[in-house]
């Protein structure tokens, strides 16, 4: 137990949600402290510098001097007020360092100094009648207020502190209360987070205890809407995974079934070649063996292509002349079309510059042409067209789509087979020609990989079939 604790302390880990909540609460307390300090500082500035409290105090003292004409009595009164005030100030200074010793100065009607407290040079303290102002004396700064009547002129001065000192003192006063409030708030927040995240920990434990091949639905109900949404999303993902695994299993089974026939032919013809002595039979067996090998090779290549399209993300586009690429591809297949006496034609602009994934587009075009050559009848027509179609969407913004059409006038595809013709290992009713049923599946997956689509329509002269591939350009 101790070693596990030490290991956790040594290993860096991501902060938990509880820790994030506590740090957020600390940040909120700090911001609240700054906001309250700013408010108190504003109140201090307003009350002590704008509302003239020192001037009010000076006028109150002056009201006590109104009935006194004797200098000795006036001096004694002012001295007593100064002594009492500063005694209280000394007591307050023990808890509030912003409080300092006040200075009092009294002059008669002729301007002669009657009393100056604190040993301050009388000439150094000069006030403005009936106003407050900041004055300097030595290294100290004082807030002064001066008032007068017919007989006396009184000047009061209090030491002032700079703004930073005031702010620091305000914060020092606030922190104890804020810490108590933080502790009072932290407990319910911590309990709420701890017990609120318990269903999430239960979900985590449930997923950790599952087998790797268990893709069944998660039956874990909670009383929290957010967690139910997470569970629903996980169940949706598991459902998609189950469907993907089902398709992969069917794909493997169908591939094994399709490979079984050519492999059996290869084994049989290889056995014949080792047994027969007649040259004609050996030559016929060798031809059958080569056809089986070619069929197996073609099927394996299509399986690899389809697997690559299933796993690969959208590839890197390349800018090139698409019309020139189609012309080169048709030229390479011209001999195969001529062998079946097919009328091969192309309707495309001289130049069509576009950004496409060349390898995927080439695979789509090759499979469509091979499909047409394999299933088209002798002496028929095979027409290929290439164009750019512009559509206008919202705000009259034009979108360009590359459209490739491969049409023939062959036997076509029955309406009952058209809905499933793009599925893997699905072939139409015309099965006189050998095929794997993967060519159109590769075309559809390639179009999806490039962000496009493929559709099936009627072919030439009211016969056959046409495949229309639309790709973003």
Query: Helix- and strand-based class?
Result: alpha+beta
N- to C-terminal distance: 63 Å
CATH homologous superfamily classification of the largest domain: Histidine kinase-like ATPase, C-terminal domain
At the third CATH level, what is the topology name of the largest domain?
Answer: Heat Shock Protein 90
User: Which CATH architecture of the largest domain would you pick?
Assistant: 2-Layer Sandwich
**Count of alpha and pi helical runs:** 13
- What spatial order of strands do you see in the largest sheet? 2-1-5-4-3
What's the number of extended β-strand segments? Answer: 12
Number of domains: 3
Strand content range: 15-25%
- Summed over residues and divided by their number, the pLDDT gives a mean of 76
Q: What is the CATH level 1 assignment of the largest domain?
A: Alpha Beta
Overall form: elongated
Largest sheet: 5 strands, antiparallel
* DSSP helix fraction: 40-55%
Q: In terms of per-residue confidence, which ranges show pLDDT below 50 for 5 or more consecutive residues?
A: 8-12
- Succession of helices and strands: HHHHEEEEEHHHHEHHEEHEEHHEE
């Amino acid at each position: 137990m101790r070693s596990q604790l030490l290991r956790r302390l040594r290993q860096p880990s991501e902060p938990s949600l509880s820790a994030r909540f506590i740090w957020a609460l600390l940040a909120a307390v700090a911001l609240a402290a700054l906001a309250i300090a700013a408010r108190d500082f504003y109140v201090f500035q307003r009350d002590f510098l704008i509302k003239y409290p020192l001037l009010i105090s000076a006028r109150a003292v002056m009201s006590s001097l109104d009935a006194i004409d004797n200098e000795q009595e006036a001096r004694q009164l002012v001295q007593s007020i100064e002594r009492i005030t500063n005694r209280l100030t000394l007591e307050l200074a023990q808890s509030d360092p912003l409080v300092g010793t006040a200075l009092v100065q009294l002059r008669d009607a002729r301007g002669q100094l009657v009393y100056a407290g604190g040993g301050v040079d009388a000439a150094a303290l000069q006030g403005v009648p009936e106003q407050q102002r900041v004055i300097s004396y030595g290294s100290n700064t004082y807030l002064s207020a001066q008032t007068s009547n017919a007989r006396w002129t009184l000047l009061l001065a209090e030491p002032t502190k700079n703004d930073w000192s005031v702010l620091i003192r305000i914060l020092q006063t606030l922190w104890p209360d804020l810490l108590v409030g933080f502790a009072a708030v932290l407990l319910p927040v911590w309990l709420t987070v701890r017990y609120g995240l318990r269903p999430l920990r239960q979900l985590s434990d449930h997923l950790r205890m599952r087998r790797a091949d268990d893709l069944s639905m998660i039956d874990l109900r909670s009383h929290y809407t957010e967690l139910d949404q997470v569970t629903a999303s996980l169940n949706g993902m598991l459902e998609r995974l189950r469907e993907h695994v089902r398709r992969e299993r069917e794909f493997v089974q169908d591939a094994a079934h399709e490979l079984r026939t050519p492999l059996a032919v290869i084994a049989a013809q290889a056995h014949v070649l080792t047994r027969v002595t007649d040259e004609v039979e050996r030559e016929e067996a060798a031809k059958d063996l080569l056809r089986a090998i070619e069929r197996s090779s073609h099927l394996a290549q299509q399986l690899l292509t389809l697997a690559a399209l299933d796993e690969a993300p959208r590839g890197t586009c390349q800018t090139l002349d698409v019309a020139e690429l189609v012309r080169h591809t048709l030229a390479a297949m011209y001999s195969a079309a001529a062998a079946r006496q097919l009328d091969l034609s192309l309707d495309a602009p001289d130049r069509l510059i576009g950004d496409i994934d060349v390898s995927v587009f080439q695979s789509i075009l090759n499979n469509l042409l091979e499909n047409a050559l394999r299933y088209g009848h002798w002496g028929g027509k095979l027409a290929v067209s290439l164009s750019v179609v512009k559509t206008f969407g919202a705000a009259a913004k034009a979108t360009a789509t590359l459209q490739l059409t491969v049409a023939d006038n062959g036997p076509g595809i029955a309406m009952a087979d058209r809905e499933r013709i793009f599925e893997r290992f699905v072939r139409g009713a015309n099965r006189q020609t050998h095929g794997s049923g993967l060519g159109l599946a590769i075309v559809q997956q390639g179009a999806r990989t490039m962000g496009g689509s493929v559709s099936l329509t009627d072919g030439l002269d009211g016969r056959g079939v046409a495949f229309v591939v639309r790709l973003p350009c």
